[in-house]
Amino acid sequence: MRWLLVLLLTIACQIVQAAQLPRFEQVKQQWQSSYARLLDRHGHVLSYQRLNKQQHRFEWTALDDVSPALIDALLFVEDRDFYQHHGVDWGAVSRSAISYLTGQKARGASTISMQLVALLDNTLSWQSGGRTVSKKWQQIWAAKQLERQWTKAQILEAYLNLVIWRGDLQGVSVASLALFDKWPRGLDRDESLVLVALLAAPNANYARLKQRVCQLAQAGFTADCTRMRLLVETQLHRRQLPFAMQPDIDSLAARLLSEAHQDLRTSLDASLQQFAYQTLVSQLRSLVHQQANAGAVLVIHNATGEVLAYVANSGLDQESQWVDGVQALRQAGSTLKPFLYTLAIDQQRLTAASVLDDKPVNISTELGLYVPQNYEKDFKGAVTVRTALASSLNVPAVLTLQQVGLTSFWQLLKDLGFSLEQQPDYYGNALALGGSDVSLWQLANAYRTLANAGQRNPLFLTLPHDTPVPTAPLWSSGSSFIVSDILSDRQARSLSFGFENPLATPFWTAVKTGTSKDMRDNWCIGFSQTYTVAVWVGNMQGLPMRDVSGITGAAPIWFDIMHYLHQDQMAMPAPVAPATLQQMQVQFTGFNQPSYLEWFLEGTGQQQISYQADTIPQIIYPAHGTIIALDPDMPVARQKVFFKAHVGGEHLAFWLNDQYLAQAEQDYAWQPQRGHYHLQLKTHSGQTRADIRFEVRGKVVKP
């Protein structure tokens, strides 16, 4: 009776047409990796991100990219007559049938072709309906059909990519990378046999696998049993992600990539990215005992705005490897000073040769006295604007802020792309010294704007991108040139930094460093005519570093990257000055400043500058932002506010809400009335030398 049943099933299966099988090209085309790829501008892979968590596949692997040792092991274990049969090993089928009919344990008779059709058509898999004679015959006829349509090489290639090797690892590439940390082309014979041994039982325990690999070696496959047992114990035990973490780029890749099987081409250059990352890590390792373990680097092409290197993280602090140091907000330090002086020069409030007093000052504010100090805790006396900016002196910067106005400077920073979340009064005079949080991304593009003569447009990370639409410059090309020239001046910066330091490149560059309060952060941002390079060094915990400034922390990284970028352009000349600028030999009297050639905006040139102490006009009282309260119990005549000013040797007058009040050489007694007020010191020609805003509150009091 049993023989009759089998015969009837056999005849029935023979007349069933095999399912329509896809073509090899269709299978390959429909294959989708679980990973997305972030590519550099030349197509080189920067990062892989697994975005499909339901499957674990990698890119389709060509047969030529698979080690011959793995193919040998696969055929030895799964299908030794693969190249002789046409999809079915009839000898193995006969032996399996006899075992089945006699009630013995059936041996496997499925060829690679038969296994592949089950992978291509789930209805042919034993997992769909169990192991039956009918299903076996369906596999047989489908395998024969497959062999008529596909080549042997295509069958092997598809099988290696479609089969489950262990756990959720589907495909030879992801299995080889996850288990042996190498591509399939690099597998040796021992590793290959261990991998193939998984096919029969992908989730088998280690003891069973160690026994199986040695049995296969004893059966005739040349391999080292002892080493294979060790591989099972070590490699399979510590299964890892197919790709090691890349802290320099992974956070960016996770932000940009959105779906599996996506290839996103960026503007980055893989070689430059790797150099910048290695340079950062090398410098941080030299500072490890000084509480510096983190950093970030950004390299931008000035003309296009394309980001060429984006190093988001050093990876030295494992708990914060996914933090993007390029986008993180941190205190700016002195890095905002160039934009303050650009504004002052552009408004013609100062020239590069103007003299500022670097001395102790007490500035009245609504919160009390503000007492700025320099990084070195000393004062340099009378200095030119050129020296004050290049040597990063703090008191002159605060005095300059008082001249241009806090609101004007705040608005310029906003226009530059800085995300100042508070109103100007929140920052106060500290805004001149970097008392706001900024990101490396924002700083880099702001300095690029300086390099591009005040023309600001967005940065680009992906290719292709739209051509940026020209916008009105934030300041004149002449102001950009003057400030850039100052930032390139080794002589001018020597007062604070000396002549030999990492800011001194053999080709033209303009550069500024910055160090935040308590040395929590330090920066170095600068540009050549072609590139802008920005570097941040610190730690992810926001802790003070020990004796690490912009010069000793970030600047060496900036210097090395600039050298790498210009290794073939060491003789690059300085930029050409705009035609609107004038250059004059300036003579100074009243303080120790040798004569030198200086650049001026048209109409602002001075050949002789005489210095007298305290020549900077300022409004002493009221301070900017002061709120004056009327006293309802005091007679009106007794309630006077005395406007006090220091005119600095000039003939200046008080103007209140654009109305003339009196000359400012003497204090002026003003009768307060409720409202908002704008107090200015003006010259006879109408130029504003200083201004503040204040408010009067309270009930109107009768006489």
Could you characterize the architecture of this molecule?
With 703 residues, the chain is α+β, with helices and mostly antiparallel strands. The chain has 3 domains: 218 residues, Penicillin binding protein transpeptidase fold, CATH 1.10.3810; 253 residues, DD-peptidase/beta-lactamase superfamily (Beta-lactamase); 80 residues, Immunoglobulins (Immunoglobulin-like, Sandwich). It has a 5-stranded antiparallel sheet with strand order 8-7-17-16-15, with helices on both faces. A hairpin with a 6-residue loop joins strand 18 and strand 19. The longest helix has 17 residues. The chain is elongated, with a radius of gyration of 38 Å. Pathway: Cell wall biogenesis; peptidoglycan biosynthesis. It holds the Pfam family Transpeptidase. GO terms for molecular function: carboxypeptidase activity; penicillin binding; peptidoglycan glycosyltransferase activity. In the N-terminal section; belongs to the glycosyltransferase 51 family. Keywords: Carboxypeptidase, Glycosyltransferase, Hydrolase, Multifunctional enzyme, Protease, Signal, Transferase.
